[in-house]
Structure formats: structure tokens, C-alpha cells
Specification:
Number of strands: 26
Oligomer: single chain
Helix content: 10-25%
Number of domains: 3
CATH superfamily of the largest domain: DNA Polymerase III, subunit A, domain 2
Strand order of the largest sheet: 14-11-12-13-26-25-24-18-22
Structural class: alpha+beta
Number of helices: 6
CATH architecture of the largest domain: Roll
Distance between the termini: 76 Å
Shape: elongated
CATH topology of the largest domain: DNA Polymerase III, Chain A, domain 2
Radius of gyration: 25 Å
CATH class of the largest domain: Alpha Beta
Strand content: 35-45%
Length: about 375
């Protein structure tokens, strides 16, 4: 008989539930997956949530956190619908919360004066999730991992027509990890030095964004993977995701090796100019025309017969090469430039209808942003 009974700090419990809630399934054919599984045993509280593709396990233990206030009176397990569970814990009117099973799956939540009773799911109805750690692993400083994600994952596709493009390809040759994301119209690539076994896997961009958010209070994050799944591990939390299937496109051939024109421009000035020029949209897309004659003769413009037009002059730090007249998605270039970090950025062109490269204007060339131009009839 399940006799779960424990007491815990309300805010600590709610924060852990918020992490687990990221993996809760909203439309699973398995009803129990709409809930968060709570296991109390051996002085620990373990929260589990999954939508089958993504799973999260959060472990709470007083030995690792003095302010947790965890007191397990009776070991046991229960699954509670995540929506109601989050709401109840948030509304409890005390610093601590008591959770106990009254009868079967009927669960009692109590604070100072407020109390709630809700029916849960039987723990045996919850699927068994294999959280065993894969053998290939890399230890990251959170700051490095966060930068990797911020600099690449935004370029992954949001369309399901080619599922593999909805992820970031992580490829290691043993000493260098190359992270690549593309939606076929833009590409982001970052390289970092790591020592690991060789591998090539594609991780859903959504999983990476979740990892960046979940582990922001961790100094170190371990990444463990095999050919089926990837785990992010830190601060008692395991974020696990299935990998995207299918071969990732060979993107090396998309990146130009030689350039005929090179623009160096202040990063913030370029972002602000694109933002000001982006108020006109055509077919829900902002197409910006860039015309460069020299370093002090640069213009950005945006025009729509139905709405109007915008025009802005810019000055560059330097410009080398023949004049160029090129059009592109304002959103794509703005995203790419925002992912960079140097005061000035370098934009390298090969031609008016060829992909162009945006990089930090510094010795660090480990980060590359590529954007395809858009054909217009000016």
C-alpha cells in the first residue's frame, strides 16, 4: 500500500516542479504522462516528467541543501497532474508544504490554513524511463555551454518538413567539437576545443534552449551521449532527450572560402539600423537592401508599394572591394549579428547572389554566421 507522506520547503519544491514541468506531455495517449511523478525514498525526493522524447529527473536531498527542509515521514510514490500540482503548490499559504496520500491515489496538500485534495495516477501506470548515463561524456563550464547554444541554436529550422534541421549537429573529431545549425537559408557554426570520442549527433534545438535555462545556476554541466540519446547533468537534475534521426546535411560546401569584398562595421550600429529599417514587412518577412559604394557611402533601405519605405545611411570602420547591392532577411542578419560579441563585426561577400559570412572582427574566428541573400527586383 502506498503511504507517501513528506514535508518540504514550498519554494524549493515549486522551483523543482517548474524544471520538471518543462518535459510534461500535453497531449500524450498515456494519461499519466500529463503528470509529474513524485518518489520519496532513502532521504530523497525525486521528481520525474516526460513526453517520451524529452525526460527530466530532479533530485532533492537535504544533505545537499540545508534550506530544503525535506522530512520524509513515509516513503512512497504518486503521479499528480502537472497543471493542478503546480497551481496547488503555488497557492499554498506557508513556507513549508505537507504532502500525503490519504487513500489510494487521493493526495492531500496542506499549508498553514489552506489544504487541497486531488486524485492522482498510480505510479505503476507511469512508464519506466531509462536514465542510465551514456558512455561518451564531456564536462562543460555552464558559460561555455550557454554560449554554444546562444550562438547556434537560433539558426535551426522551426518547420517540420525536414525534422533533422530542427536540431543542432554536434560533431567531434576527438579534439574539436563543431556545432552547426541551419534552416537552409542561414547557418551558424561554432567550434570549441574538447577531448572526447569521435561522434556526430543532432540534438533538438528545443532541448538545448531548455538546457540553457535549466542549468543557469550550475557552474558545471556534464553532457553525456550515445547514438540514441543525450543527457545534460548538473545540480541534481538530468535533462534527457532523444536525438533527431537522419543524416545531417554536409554544410562545409555551403561556406565560401574566398571573398571579393569585406565590410567592417560597428556591431551595435548595424543592429540598431536593421531594427529601424525593419518596420515594413512583405509576406510577413522584412527584406532589407544593402548598398555599399565605399566605407562612408553605405545605405540600408526597405520598400513596400502598399506601406511605404525606409532609408538610412551608415558609416563603416572600413570597406574593401568593388561596390555591392545585396538584399537579405533583416531578421536573419540581425539574429546573426546579435549572436556575435565583438565591438565591430566583419561581413565578407563573394557576390550579390552568393551566401555571405558574418564574424567577430577579432582574432577569434571560431564562430561563423552565414546568410543567403534574397533575390529582389528593385
Amino acid at each position: 500500500m502506498n503511504e507517501l507522506n513528506f514535508r518540504i520547503n514550498k519554494n524549493k519544491f515549486y522551483n523543482a516542479l517548474s524544471v520538471a514541468n518543462r518535459a510534461v506531455s500535453s497531449n500524450s495517449p498515456i494519461p499519466a504522462l500529463s503528470g509529474i511523478r513524485i518518489d520519496a525514498a532513502e532521504g530523497k525526493l525525486i521528481l520525474t516528467a516526460s513526453d517520451v522524447n524529452t525526460s527530466i529527473k530532479a533530485e532533492l536531498c537535504s544533505d545537499q541543501d540545508d534550506s530544503l527542509g525535506l522530512n520524509i515521514i513515509q516513503e512512497g510514490s504518486i503521479v499528480i497532474d502537472a497543471k493542478y500540482l503546480m497551481d496547488i503548490v503555488k497557492k499554498i499559504d506557508s513556507e513549508d508544504i505537507s504532502v500525503s496520500i490519504i487513500d489510494g491515489t487521493l493526495t492531500h496538500f496542506a499549508g498553514q490554513k489552506a489544504e487541497f485534495k486531488i486524485n492522482g495516477y498510480r505510479p505503476e501506470d507511469y512508464p519506466v524511463i531509462d536514465f542510465s548515463e551514456p558512455s561518451v561524456n564531456i564536462d562543460f563550464k555552464y558559460s561555455v555551454l550557454s554560449s554554444l547554444i546562444s550562438e547556434t541554436a537560433f539558426a535551426a529550422s522551426v518547420k517540420e518538413t525536414r525534422p533533422v534541421l530542427m536540431g543542432v549537429n554536434l560533431k567531434s573529431d576527438g579534439s574539436t567539437l563543431t556545432c552547426t545549425a541551419t534552416d537552409s537559408y542561414r547557418l551558424a557554426r561554432k567550434t570549441v576545443s574538447v577531448e572526447s570520442e569521435q561522434f556526430s549527433v543532432t540534438v533538438p534545438a528545443r532541448t538545448l534552449f531548455d538546457a540553457r535555462s535549466i542549468f543557469q545556476d550550475s557552474e558545471d554541466v556534464r553532457v553525456a551521449l550515445n547514438q540514441k540519446k543525450i543527457q545534460f547533468i548538473g545540480n541534481g537534475i538530468v535533462l534527457q532527450s532523444n536525438l533527431l534521426e537522419g543524416g545531417y546535411p554536409e554544410t562545409d560546401r555551403l561556406i565560401p572560402k574566398e571573398f571579393s569584398r569585406r565590410l567592417v562595421i560597428n556591431r551595435l550600429s548595424l543592429i540598431q539600423a536593421i531594427d529601424r529599417t525593419s518596420f515594413i514587412k512583405t509576406d510577413n518577412m522584412t527584406i532589407i537592401r544593402l548598398q555599399i559604394n565605399s566605407s562612408d557611402d553605405i545605405s540600408l533601405s526597405n520598400k513596400s508599394q502598399e506601406i511605404g519605405e525606409s532609408h538610412e545611411s551608415l558609416n563603416a570602420v572600413s570597406y574593401e572591394g568593388e561596390p555591392i547591392d545585396i538584399s537579405f532577411s533583416g531578421t536573419y542578419v540581425s539574429d546573426a549579428v546579435k549572436a556575435l560579441s565583438s565591438e565591430n563585426v566583419t561581413v565578407s561577400f563573394t557576390g550579390e547572389m552568393k551566401p555571405f559570412i558574418i564574424q567577430n572582427d577579432a582574432e577569434d574566428k571560431t564562430l561563423l554566421q552565414l546568410v543567403l541573400p534574397v533575390r529582389t527586383y528593385n
